[in-house]
């Protein structure tokens, strides 16, 4: 029987992943935590505790009491917010991860998951089909913290044999939860505007290609990675993961087929520079080879799936 602890459970990935983990392991075996107050936590059927991951006493007490067999450490500041508050981002993203790695080592937690991001890459990285191992040199606070995090994950694996697993998520597009403070957030906002029959003002240029992924695929990848036998996990920093490569214009044109009156305008802001230094597309051969990763959603299927489900979800 597995016992699961999730940090950052109220975030874009956390809110969706928690539901899947409850379905798989049962409500009593999953504890969702986040820094927000219990009355603001969105998942009524989850066991929830308020937790600041930087409070190592509180974290240690929860891990002592719950004795999780798996920790999903999702609490982090995303790229756009991190550029506004680089030192806060470093503290949360780095000290938070180190607190989790330490508690997992000390209390012998069998498995830990931590998300990295395409933000580990920078302007010197080959932008088409970016390889697993290549020049990184991120220039954003978020990217720097993610790259340093990857090195620490591999360090804990090599030095202490901590079974840590990680994915470099592309921008995630879902309809059940909202992102906050990311550069790829436009790709979630745009669907909501279309459904509300409002025009969308996009903060990236029309032709900004970025690696993206449907949330359903990202959840499957995460669960598949965590369920794979340890011997199949050859990359202990973080795996490249490929979904869909698209631009705001691609998404707009796809949505317009269903909502012909939908309108968009482009007003790039500081997030454009972040996006300009990220890859266009990702090579994920290692993930496919090592643990059988295979995405299910292409651009067309994802747009259809979201436009069918989002209106029911917003009711
Ligand atoms: C962000 O935009 O910051 C995230 C990411 C790509 O890691 N969605």
Automatic annotation (TrEMBL):
NAD-dependent epimerase/dehydratase domain sequence ranges: 4-231
Family: Belongs to the NAD(P)-dependent epimerase/dehydratase family.
Pfam families referenced in this protein's UniProt entry, alphabetically: Epimerase (PF01370)
Lineage top rank: taxon: Bacteria
Protein name: NAD-dependent epimerase/dehydratase family protein
């Amino acid at each position: 029987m597995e016992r699961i602890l999730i940090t950052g459970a109220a975030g874009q990935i956390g809110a969706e992943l928690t539901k899947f983990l409850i379905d798989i392991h049962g409500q009593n075996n999953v504890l969702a935590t986040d820094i927000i107050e219990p009355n603001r936590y969105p998942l009524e059927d989850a066991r929830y505790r308020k937790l600041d991951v930087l409070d190592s006493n509180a974290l240690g007490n929860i891990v002592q009491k719950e004795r999780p067999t798996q920790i999903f450490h999702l609490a982090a500041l995303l790229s756009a917010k991190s550029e506004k508050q680089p030192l806060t981002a470093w503290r949360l993203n780095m000290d938070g991860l180190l607190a989790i790695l330490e508690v997992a080592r000390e209390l012998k937690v069998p498995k830990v998951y931590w998300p990295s991001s395409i933000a580990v890459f920078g302007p010197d990285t080959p932008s088409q089909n970016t390889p697993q191992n290549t020049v990184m040199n991120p220039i954003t606070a978020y990217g720097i913290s993610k790259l340093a995090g990857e090195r620490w994950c591999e360090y804990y694996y090599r030095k202490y044999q901590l079974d840590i697993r990680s994915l470099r998520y592309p921008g995630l597009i879902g309809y059940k939860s909202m992102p906050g403070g990311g550069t790829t957030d436009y790709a979630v906002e745009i669907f909501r505007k279309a459904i509300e029959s409002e025009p969308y003002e996009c903060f990236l240029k029309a032709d900004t290609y970025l690696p993206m992924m449907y949330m359903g695929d990202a959840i499957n990848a995460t669960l598949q990675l965590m369920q794979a036998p340890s011997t199949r996990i050859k990359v202990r920093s973080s795996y490249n993961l490929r979904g869909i490569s698209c631009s705001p214009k691609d998404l707009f044109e796809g949505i317009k087929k269903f909502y012909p009156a939908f309108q968009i305008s482009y007003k790039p802001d500081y997030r454009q520079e972040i996006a300009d230094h990220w890859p266009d597309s990702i090579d994920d051969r290692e993930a496919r080879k090592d643990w059988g990763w295979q995405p299910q959603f292409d651009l067309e299927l994802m747009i259809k799936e979201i436009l069918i489900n989002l209106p029911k979800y917003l009711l």
